[in-house]
Amino acid sequence: MTTIAVRTPNPYSVIVGRGVLDSVPELLQVGTTRVAVIYAPAVKNVAEQVASRLAASHRVVLMHELPDAEAAKTVSTLDACWAALGAAGFTRNDAVVSVGGGATTDLVGFVAATWLRGVDVIHVPTTTLARVDAAVGGKTGINTSAGKNLVGAFHEPRGVLVDLDVLSELPLEEHRAGLPEIVKAGWIRDSVILDLIEADPQAALDPSHPVCQELITRAISVKADVVSGDLREVAISGVSREILNYGHTFGHAIEKVENYSWRHGHAVSVGMIFAAELAHALGMMDRAMVDRHRSLLTALGLPISYGRADQWNELLETMRIDKKARGAVMRFVLLESVAKPVGVNNPDSHALETAFRSVAASQ
Known about the structure:
This protein is of the alpha/beta class. The chain has helices spanning 24-27, 44-56, 75-87, 102-114, 128-134, 164-167, 172-188, 191-199, 201-204, 210-229, 248-257, 264-281, 287-299, 312-320, 349-361; strands at residues 2-6, 12-17, 34-39, 60-65, 95-100, 120-125, 139-144, 147-154, 159-163, 331-337, 340-345. The strands form three sheets. Strands 1-2-9-6-5-3-4 form a seven-stranded mixed β-sheet, with helices on both faces. It has a two-stranded antiparallel sheet with strand order 7-8.
């Protein structure tokens, strides 16, 4: 078992290991009498395991199933969760537990942040993506017609439980979709992640392999370290949480333009290629480093192109209202070298178009 500390104003731990579902009741405050287990339909069996442990600790358990994936991150789903908590008489002393992937974590975190202006939440992420990204850091939110994750709140959990026994049951494509966030952690902070993947891509693709489990632990540690230095993404110097958005500006634009039919990880994979090509067009990154982006993601079976050249104007407008934008300033996280990310404001329009053409052409 590995415990990773997240040293934010309300500190908590991410517990990684086998059988850690048993720790769910221990994370609750004394006096918590009701717990809502809000879960994705694909992992109802895991939610039931969590519920049984809570019931054994003499808590009243409410089970509430969500729509699948990004379909959960809507105002109507949020309202349904509020209605369920209200009908069950949930008070400030009660808590919610999320069981599912990143969309579930985002939605349930927002439910907890907004019910009675904030109740406790524990995350039990069941996908690779949720484990290394959404469940850690306290960001919560939903999607709207204006864009992805533009409505939300910062709400830190009481704890995060990463059960490796659950991970071993994850379908390959679901696991693969989480790997771009691990790759991202390698580019922005921990180069050992990149070395491990390049040395044995198949090990990275096997959730039961020790190398894969090390990659997950390393990626969680990167995120924990970054958010500990900048919880609310306000730092203007030193460690900034904004670096976690490497590859996300273009990735989020793809998701919105494609009506969230793309997996988040796949969009971020292409987003990292766009960021690398943009850095190259701006003279910040050499071609060898761009090619390393491409070869590493290709070895994992991830997409590196977006073939709809006719969508450039819509993608560009979507990026202008990305949550990293500052007023009229479009902002990107780019790399000068491995583990040296920087923020770039309003990059040259020709460089943006050059980067897009490179991504659109690389079929």
